[in-house]
């Protein structure tokens, strides 16, 4: 099976509400989207082309290459269809693989049972053809087979990503309640930041927003920080295709850039975590780190920029009454210190958002994990235009 050169259905998944930004990324890379949906997009491309996508996409989670589509009602139907696939042409019989699934079938009470059926079918086929049973388990660092099964419709994929793409590989120290890298990238793309004007990130936490801003501005792709993907464990993989793509990533990095990114936090530990993560990402020299209350964050007065807050929501951290004052202070800070900027506050607490004291020009929907969140946009006029409206 020359699987790397055959076109097939490819599903690129992402977290809910990141799909519009994933679509922008895929289109910018020159690919035609066949279908888009709430948690991803569908393409018709080769497995080799999946290598480029894995290395470049910031908002994606998994890139799934379709092997077979079929009808299955019962677990036995599933087993027979899976066992008929030429797995000996896809997976090293002396290697290791894992199975993941997305199952909604009335005959299956737990996805783990479906996973077991898939695993048994693959192992039995390999033993029959090669006389050796490959090892299997839950680790996603080798070959990964993915099952999508809804009612009677089933698709089997090779997961070309393996470990999720939503983590970009540079954050060795997570910090407290960190924002996932893919979400941070989506938030930055939603601000329409021009990648040249100042990017101010008060209350930076572990620094994901500031670091992602620096990566986006300098065109550093996530593939620069990762050396293992699911596609590397599919038979027929040519490592030169991977290294050729990595050379392109290195060549496209913008090395000399006049850019102002500020990351501040009251916690000295948080700022140190940010600094160390930024150093791992190779962008520590592009970020100004400040240990201070957010009201003392230095904001350049010349030209427009963006200021982005990701404060505590009151769900897991902080005390609600204290946060009400914090949210009011954020609004005051943006009004007085950020004139001419576009202001953004990412929050999962609509009640606290009312304490900001500014009328949001736009509310962009996101999820942070399972928490329903909004990115609130504020136009911070510099005095030559009308003052911002105050929430009633």
TrEMBL record:
| Keyword Ligase in annotation | no
Q: Which UniProt keywords apply?
A: Methyltransferase, Transferase
Determine if Transferase is one of this entry's keywords.
Answer: yes
Its BP terms in the Gene Ontology are: methylation
List, for all copies, the residue spans of the domain called THUMP.
75-135
Q: Which Gene3D superfamilies match?
A: 3.30.2130.30, Vaccinia Virus protein VP39 (3.40.50.150)
MF terms from GO for this chain are:
methyltransferase activity
Residues in Ribosomal RNA large subunit methyltransferase K/L-like methyltransferase domain copies: 169-375
List the InterPro entries hit by this protein, alphabetically: RlmKL-like_Mtase, RlmL_1st, SAM-dependent_MTases_sf, THUMP_dom
The segment(s) forming the RlmL ferredoxin-like domain are 10-64
What is the protein's given name? Class I SAM-dependent RNA methyltransferase
Identify the species of origin. Pedobacter alluvionis
